[in-house]
Amino acid sequence: MRFIGNKENLLDRIKFILDKNEISGESFFDFFSGTTSVAKYFKKLGYIVYSSDLLYFSYCLQRAYIQNNEPLYFKNLTRKINIEENLLFSDPYENIFSHLNSLPPIQGFIYHNYTPNGTKELPTPRMYFSDRNGAKIDAIRIEIENLKDASLITENEYYFLLAALIESVPFYANIAGVYAAFHKKWDPRALKNFEIKYISPIVSPKKCFSFYGNSLNLIKDISVDILYLDPPYNERQYAPNYHILETIAKYDNPQIKGITGMRNYDSQKSDFCNASMALSKLDYIAKEAKYKFLVLSYNSEGIMSHDSIISTLGKYGKVTCDEIDYIRFKSNSNGLSKNKRYVQELVYILRKD
Ligand SMILES: C[S@@+](CC[C@H](N)C(=O)[O-])C[C@H]1O[C@@H](n2cnc3c(N)ncnc32)[C@H](O)[C@@H]1O
Predict the structure, then answer these.
(1) pLDDT confidence of 91, banded at 50, 70, 90?
(2) Is 215 a pocket residue for ligand 1 (Cβ < 6 Å)?
(3) How far is C-alpha 158 from the geometric centre of its chain's CA atoms?
(4) CB of 270 shorter than 6 A to ligand 1
């Protein structure tokens, strides 16, 4: 999934660094989970995984991939749609996704606020989704809620379907990568007909746990072998950059404002986007959390300097730092270092005394 700081392409290299430093264990806490890519990777390796994030849409992904440990059969729903729609796929997922994709469009919150026809009264009509795709997203989102309210799906099935919807939306959004602005012309991706895409659960015998909210509130309650920190590294808050995914996940008819139709995110601001707060919060986590190894992934151009990170973590044990070179995220190539194509991901490891 397109997401600033998504570690999907760095996972093997992060694991290589952990192996090289002989870091392993049984439990892993993905403290700033985002797309859940890191949590998923360590769950597949057999760890007991904890995950958490300030964003609700991340929580939906976490519930689908991390906390849910079982194959989902959609028994109640399959029975109903097989009878009504004569769908006879042997794979329950095919039945469900085919049902969702065949729903007639509904002009709901997304259509009325993020498509050109739905916002034609505004001085700048919003072009996040084509009219049809906005109404398809509404139809699927409304159906998922109705299925839950009618007890036709379980809680795990509910989050699984929400996760599939959330992961499908970026393939049709008329944006350059984040939702803080939309293109004024249609990107071809936005003109394709919206379809919810298949996802699969990750089955594991180890119980895993997911949380929504400020992860710092959890540090006294969770004890793990590896505490993995991948905080924001600059002043750009995540919530405004992903406001539409948040609204699709919550579907709570929020008050919105401005050219982009932004929801309020006062309660979702991260201290790690604030240069004067980030270091003291890192210090707090390193000091108070319960872990054997703290692993911090941080961009070499981040607002906490390399030296300040080393001296902060160094108060609590032995610290090492490894580097990974990678190609920068496109929409982050503004500002001073515009011409630099590669940046480094720095992986700090603290072994607590
Ligand atoms: C760099 S991204 C993490 C990317 C993630 N590792 C991935 O691969 O997708 C940082 C994440 O931290 C979350 N975040 C920031 N401050 C937080 C806090 N205090 N508590 C929980 N999550 C927070 C943001 O919402 C964002 O999803």
Answers:
(1) confident
(2) yes
(3) 17
(4) yes
CATH entry, 8-56+211-232+270-352, from 1.10.3210.10, 3.40.50.150, 2.60.40.420, 3.90.226.10: 3.40.50.150
Rounded Cα gap, residues 231 and 120, in angstroms: 38
Q: What is the position in ligand 1's atom list of the atom closest to the CA of 52? A: 21
Q: Is 214 in the pocket of ligand 1 (CB under 6 A)?
A: yes
- CA–CA distance, 182 with 185 (Å, rounded to integer): 9
Q: What is the distance between the alpha carbons of residues 340 and 263, in angstroms, rounded to a whole number?
A: 33
d(CA 209, CA 51): 6
Model confidence at 92: pLDDT above 80: no
Structure tokens at 137: 């997203």
Per-residue pLDDT reduced to its tens digit, 141-157: 999 999 999 999 999 99
345 lines ligand 1 (CB under 6 A): no
Q: Which of 14, 29, 53, 324 to mutate to test the pocket of ligand 1 (most atoms within 8 A of CB)?
A: 53
Per the rule left: phi > 0, alpha: psi between -120 and 50, beta: everything else, 90 is alpha
What are the sequence ranges of the domains in the chain? 8-56+211-232+270-352, 70-201+235-268
Question: In this structure, which residue's CA is closest to atom 26 in ligand 1?
Answer: 34
C-beta 37 within 6 A of ligand 1: yes
Rounded CA separation 283/310 (Å): 11
Assign 88 a pLDDT band (cuts: 50, 70, 90): low
**How does the average pLDDT of the chain come out, rounded?**
94
Has residue 207 got a pLDDT over 60?
A: yes
Percent of the chain with pLDDT over 90: 86
Min mean pLDDT across 91-105, 135-149, 210-224 is at: 91-105
Alpha-carbon distance of 288 to 291, in angstroms, equals 9
